[in-house]
């Protein structure tokens, strides 16, 4: 009987990897660096964009800059919500301390013929490409938004002045050991319809 363990086509092996991707919360060192980080960022730069505007921008936050960034998030939370400032500030500091690396993803909006939503979607597509690349290289990550992604002060801190803005943050690192069950794939039938002419 022939050995079929290595008979799966390479293109299907790549799809197996893609279909196994999921958001990973608990992360640990190491975060991607060097050639791996370059590949992840390059994957983001291959996202589709209408009009070849290339609106996406990535800001990598790592190493010693992470703690300084955590303090900036704490300051922003204090301005946003003075009543809950202490708890929120500690929450954001703790989040940054347990995250090996962040990639802030934003869109530099260019007024003109291409609708703003399409430029934002291009930045979103870049984020998804990078999440897929993280997974395929053996790392883990998660796309995070929340109040910081929509805070004008945090946006300015990372170089995004309105109408340009963040679409979120990608956490990046090595998946930590976990006993949590792997989420089931969504039911295709619940999300896909086929349009038919009447």
List keywords for this structure.
5-stranded antiparallel beta sheet, NADP, 198 residues, 5 strands, 16% strand, NADH Oxidase, 8 helices, 43% helix, alpha+beta
Topology, please?
Elements lengths: L9 H10 L7 E2 L5 H11 L11 E7 L1 H17 L4 H13 L3 E7 L8 H21 L3 E5 L2 H4 L1 H6 L7 E11 L12 H4 L7
Helix pairs in contact: 2-5, 3-4
Structure description:
The N and C termini lie far apart (51 Å). The chain has eight helices and five strands, in the order αβαβααβαβααβα. The model has no long low-confidence stretch (mean pLDDT 93). With 198 residues, it is of the alpha+beta class. 43% of the residues lie in helices and 16% in strands. It has one domain: NADH Oxidase, CATH 3.40.109. Helix 2 packs antiparallel against helix 5 and helix 3 runs antiparallel to helix 4. Strands 1, 2, 3, 4 and 5 form a five-stranded antiparallel β-sheet that branches.
The main β sheet shows up as: 5 strands, antiparallel
Broad structural category: alpha+beta
The CATH topology comes to: NADH Oxidase
How much of the sequence lies in strands comes to: 15-25%
Please work out how many helical segments DSSP would assign: 8
Structural domain tally: 1
**Averaging pLDDT over every residue, what do you get?**
93
How much is the radius of gyration in Å?
Answer: 19 Å
CA-to-CA gap between the ends? 51 Å
Fourth-level CATH superfamily: NADH Oxidase
| Global morphology | globular
CATH architectural group: 3-Layer(aba) Sandwich
Query: How many DSSP-defined strands?
Result: 5
Order of H and E elements: HEHEHHEHEHHEH
**Unreliable sequence segments:** none
What is the CATH level 1 assignment? Alpha Beta
